[in-house]
Design brief:
Blueprint (H helix, E strand, L loop, with lengths): L2 H7 L4 H7 L7 H35 L4 H7 L4 H25 L5 H17 L5 H13 L4 H31 L13 H27 L6 H22 L5 H19 L7 H11 L13 H12 L5 H29 L19
């Protein structure tokens, strides 16, 4: 039996988990109030998207330095833009697959809806996807899932999605610096990001080992710090186990990054720019680091980072890079926001109800 199956089997089914962890159901009034607050937050976030793109349109039309980009956007080739939209949908579906691997005990329906709702929040609240994880934690807590299990699974899915991005920087950056891949041989654009990514991988593994040792020394103790230690240590360990097991659903983590990356490439092609795919990938990986800045959607920080990196990797003229990035951001923000908002609305009635035990065959990992 695969280790990935053991990971979930160690956790009790939903109904038993709520009892064994001593989780008390929240009152109906608290659930209704929390649901209303989350609904308002998501609605206001989507509205903020509309406001943002109105601001961007005004800038493109009104600022002299950006006027050429606004004119260029009207010349985008529709087939490439449509392809970009399809690729973004595939990215969302890939996340659904990965989420089902990590949270298989939720059942396919709830798992799919919750994963899409997380993407909706992530599209308008940056911080490297932590906003979506917070929404998922709230929903799971309302359904009686223990804090410990939520924390561990949240760390697991965060590590899996981040591992692809960080690993890709190393896999692409080093060969590009050596001249084996087209793009740039500038060590500041290739070797330095790769070295930092590798250091991040090593640091994460060391941190997880320390967390497991610290948690074992505090066995029997309670508190948020202990929960955090168990979550970090166990989440990273489970992530390594899933990667070693080669479960096909792990491709969801790869697809989540890859299709979104290719969406950016399609947007560049829509304006007649066809740089090397590897150059776009590296520009994407380094430029999207701005997504960790805690501002709505990473607005302006992400756009500036992507445009700047594309220019450094040889995309010319600047108006083409700007137009492509704005088009990409329209697709990468609006598509998850619309799909995820609809998914969140469809699962509103399920929030607060205890989880139903899932058949082992349908439980995923």
């Amino acid at each position: 039996m695969k280790k990935s199956l053991k990971i979930n089997e160690e956790e009790p089914t939903a109904g038993v988990a709520a009892a064994s962890d001593g989780v008390e159901e929240d009152s109906a009034e608290d659930d209704d109030g929390g649901l209303a607050a989350q609904s308002r937050k998501l609605r206001n976030s989507v509205i903020s998207l509309a406001v943002f793109f109105v601001i961007v349109a005004g800038l493109l039309l009104g600022v002299p330095g950006l006027h050429n980009a606004a004119e260029l956007m009207t010349d985008a080739k529709p087939p490439w833009v449509v392809l970009g939209g399809v690729l973004e949908v595939l990215s969302c579906l890939s996340y659904v697959v990965l989420f089902g691997l990590v949270f298989g005990r939720l059942g396919r329906s709830l798992s799919s809806k919750l994963s899409l709702a997380e993407l909706a929040v992530n599209s308008v609240v940056s911080v490297s996807g932590l906003g979506g994880i917070a929404l998922g934690a709230w929903v799971l807590r309302s359904k009686g899932v223990s804090v410990e299990r939520i924390a561990k699974r949240s760390v697991l899915i965060f590590v899996l999605t981040s591992a692809v991005n960080v690993g890709a920087v190393v896999v692409i950056g080093v060969p590009m610096w050596l001249g084996l891949l087209p793009g740039s041989r500038n060590p500041l654009l290739t070797l330095l990001p790769a070295a930092l990514a590798f250091a991040t991988i090593v640091g994460t593994l060391l941190l997880a080992r320390w967390a497991r040792q610290a948690a074992s020394q505090r066995r029997g103790e309670e508190g948020r710090f202990v929960v955090a230690l168990v979550a970090v240590g166990g989440g990273v360990k489970d992530a390594v186990g899933l990667i070693r097991d080669h479960d096909w659903r792990m491709m969801g983590a790869v697809g989540y990054w890859l299709w979104d990356n290719l969406c950016l490439y399609a947007c560049l092609a829509a304006y007649g720019s066809r740089p090397a795919v590897w150059a776009v990938a590296m520009a994407y990986l380094v430029g999207m680091m701005a997504n960790s800045i805690p501002i709505p959607g990473g607005f302006f920080a992400v756009e500036g980072g992507l445009v700047g990196m594309l220019l450094l990797f040889g995309v010319r003229p600047a108006s083409t890079a700007l137009a492509a990035v704005v088009t990409y951001r329209v697709l990468s923000l609006w598509i998850p926001a619309i799909i995820g908002t609809a998914a969140f609305a469809s699962m509103r009635r399920e929030i607060g109800k205890p989880l139903r035990p899932q058949p082992r065959s349908a439980a995923g990992a």
